[in-house]
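Task: complex structure prediction.
Instruction: return structure tokens for all chains below.
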Amino acid sequence: MKVSTRVEYGLIALMDIVIYGENGQSVSALEIAQRENISHKYLEHILFLLRQAGFIAAQKGMKGGYSLARPADEIVLSDVLNALDSTILSGLDDCGEDSTLRSVIKVCFWEKINSNLNRYTEQLKLSEVVNQCRKNIPESWDMYVI
Amino acid sequence: MKVSTRVEYGLIALMDIVIYGENGQSVSALEIAQRENISHKYLEHILFLLRQAGFIAAQKGMKGGYSLARPADEIVLSDVLNALDSTILSGLDDCGEDSTLRSVIKVCFWEKINSNLNRYTEQLKLSEVVNQCRKNIPESWDMYVI
DNA sequence: GCCTAAACCTATTGACATAGTAGGCAAATA
DNA sequence: TATTTGCCTACTATGTCAATAGGTTTAGGC
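Output:
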């Protein structure tokens, strides 16, 4: 599945905030950008989307930055992906519900793939992705995480 | 998952050829285009891709058209999708195998989704999709299929 | 109250892919 | 030989992506 950098960076940013903002301190866009090698200005747009969608809260001014708006185990992956790219989890365009080959294939093939993708991301929480990632590469993070 | 019309039309065309060319007769591009409501000229490009990839054979001239180059149960869906869009089943761009968050998420999240998608399409044959579709909407096809 | 660091917002841009359209050439058949 | 069909090349309009740029607002530190 093709994934845009907007979606990819968005998830990275969110997870960066979870990891480096664990004790309630906010994480600035510049900090994330430098740590994850993402264009600072581009990241700002992405963080804007994530804030609009209600995943993160922002604090302006000095010592400001971003923090999770709600616990990581209440953030569902499908919501995150949809917020960053409204088409990523939605299936084919609506073509009516006739009996054309097009409609039939839509129901029998494309929607199967799509519902599978949805079922997986709908039950997956941000916290689980973070934990899964921690398990796989723990040693490199221990020195940052307090 | 977002799917381009190129991929969608390609699968439609292939299945149309399976269904309406069952007894060895070839199916013309114009025929498919009219039946499935696809731009004839655009469809030609797509059929060109399918022929290049070895799924269909073409017959020029009067009474010409397209037919399957090999049996439908030897055509694997992942190959078809890849032929129509090389990015659809391939994961994220290669970003090196360091220990950045980016790499870790790639391994722990994106590649999971992708391998799942690949596993499904790699075992799925064109004939199975056709049969599945026949089962779901049989009455509308019976009058065409000989 | 000023300086600075940060988020916020708007506009613009270059590159690329998509979804076609157009027109002619080549081949095979009737 | 005329017609039908596929083959091939070129072109275009539209939209999205991935930034970049620059200014405005807000909040904290001094």
